[in-house]
Amino acid sequence: MRKWILTTLLLCIVPILFFTLKNEDIIVKPSPLKVSSGDLWHMDLFSPEMNETIKVDIWTPERYTINKDYPVIYMHDGQNLFDATSTWNRQAWEIDSVAGILMRDSIIPPAIVVGIYSTDTTRLGDLMPEKPLQYLQNDTIKNFIDMMCRGNYRADEYLAFIVNTLKPVIDRNFSTDTALISTSIMGSSMGGLISIYGMCEYPQVFGSAACLSTHWTGALGGNEDFPRVMRGYLTEKLPQDTIHRLYMDNGDCPYDSVYTPYFLEMVALADSLGYKDERLKSAIYKGHAHNEKSWSKRVEIPLTFLLNNEK
What we know:
This protein has one domain: Alpha/Beta hydrolase fold, catalytic domain (Rossmann fold, 3-Layer(aba) Sandwich), CATH 3.40.50. It starts with a helix and ends with a helix. It has helices at 2-17, 95-104, 123-127, 130-133, 139-148, 155-173, 190-201, 225-237, 256-272, 292-298, 300-307, and strands at 19-20, 27-30, 39-47, 52-60, 72-76, 112-116, 183-188, 208-212, 245-251, 280-285. Helix 8 packs parallel to helix 9 (256-272). The chain contains eleven helices and ten strands. It is an alpha/beta fold. Strands 1-2-3-4-6-5-7-8-9-10 form a ten-stranded mixed beta sheet, with helices on both faces. Helix content is 39%, strand content 19%.
């Protein structure tokens, strides 16, 4: 009798702890990171676009069920989103805690967050928008960015990985709402740059983007050249319809204070291109610095903006 009970318990528990994705040779297992709400899963997914394996965490909310379709937010620097004890600076966005409270209080609907890990040696080149660089003429800035990115620019491949490899895996194996207005992309600093770039390059995939403490200077603080080519790119490529939505913010402490004039220019540009009212939200947060601690303090605002798109 005891053996039968133990066997039954194991059969019930094991499928919860590990599962193989449908029609794919990929194992999803519980992440060793600690979360305060919901469940965190981890998988290692090979990217043919980048020719390497990418670490990915998938956070599902409390009472997640296959009987409901959930909006999805794709976030960069996935290793910094959930558990501060595992990060290099002992800070995290605390997405699980903040989103859990917002969902518990019915401020936002339940959603899935997909965190894509970055790698120190390739991060800058992976998140640096490639197409605007073609119009950069200042050799000093070009050389600095080239040194910073080690001459290895992969932003287009990185976005192609998200859209063509990762998203299909998520949609096939988790209960997602695939509608344009239910798919968002969000990040900070260089992650802010790649988020707005991602919505421009794939307007049919990402209905909204959230860009926190965006590294608008691209390279050296205070240079005018990279912001100029980004303005030109956004003027041409930012989706100009009644659907896409954009969140942008900034702190007023270093390094964010350096970005402030360019942040204000980009907000004005978005407004001039039709991003008004409920389609654009922007703010400068006093006392907020360029780190996860500050982003965690205000991430409830972009989460609410992205997920309450029906308003």
